[in-house]
Write a structure and sequence with these properties.
The protein is mainly alpha-helical. The chain folds into 3 domains: 1-60, no CATH class; 65-97 and 117-145; 149-194, no CATH class. It contains 5 helices and 2 strands; from the N terminus they run ααββααα. Strand 1 and strand 2 (112-119) form a beta hairpin. Helix 2 packs antiparallel against helix 3. The longest helix has 26 residues, at 147-172.
Length: 198
């Protein structure tokens, strides 16, 4: 439904019922045809198109190829899981049999809708199979790129940094001999408590 002009007629005081100029909030009779309004409307239209493109395709960003590969593994695994749910929701008969084409005929001897049904793998099943194959390929690439090794090294580096920070904090606290004796027990216990969440 077209957006209507927000202006009011001087003679009647009633709202204008004409459609607005694209990207504006007034019709051509109430200022929508003015050059500055047209320019502003064009800017709004272009901004809206750009915002939609960003939502659809995303903005370019710098990314480490290994991080991008790992992101693709996670994204594809999510798609596979979602498509699996769609396939599970199908009735058994719908997996290989269903409507393959529907054509509306308005003219001729028998007007109406022609529906073709055939034995063919359901589109959800085909999408699920294709995405599963893609997931296997991406995982192979990730393993080939040594991503698991990289994750282990990163975890080791983070662990070493954390140990250094804890050691520095404990050194700054000027602990008593009794408190220092508890450090060897308390710190590992607290770290183990958060390890499953991490």
């Amino acid at each position: 439904m077209a957006e209507l002009c927000g202006a009011h007629a001087r003679s009647t005081g009633k709202p204008c019922t004409r459609p607005v100029v694209k990207g504006a909030n007034r019709c051509r009779f109430h200022g929508g045809a003015a050059p500055q309004v047209k320019a502003a409307a064009e800017r709004r239209t272009q901004t809206a198109l750009a915002e939609q493109a960003v939502k659809t395709f995303g903005l370019p960003r710098e990314v480490d190829p290994r991080d991008a590969l790992l992101e693709e593994v996670h994204r594809t695994a999510g798609a596979v899981a979602w498509l699996h749910e769609q396939v599970q929701a199908l009735q058994a008969a719908d997996v290989v049999w269903g409507k393959t084409e529907e054509v509306d005929k308005m003219a001729g001897e028998f007007p109406g809708t022609d529906t073709k049904r055939a034995a063919e793998v359901n589109v959800w099943v085909r999408l699920w199979q294709a995405e599963r194959a893609h997931l296997v390929k991406v995982c192979e690439k990730a393993i080939g790129a040594g991503l698991e090794e990289r994750r282990v090294k990163l975890a080791e580096q983070q662990g070493a940094m954390l140990a250094g920070v804890i050691k520095a904090i404990l050194g700054d606290l000027d602990l008593s001999a009794e408190q220092q004796a508890k450090v060897a027990t308390v710190v590992p216990m607290r770290l183990r408590a958060v390890a499953p969440a991490a």
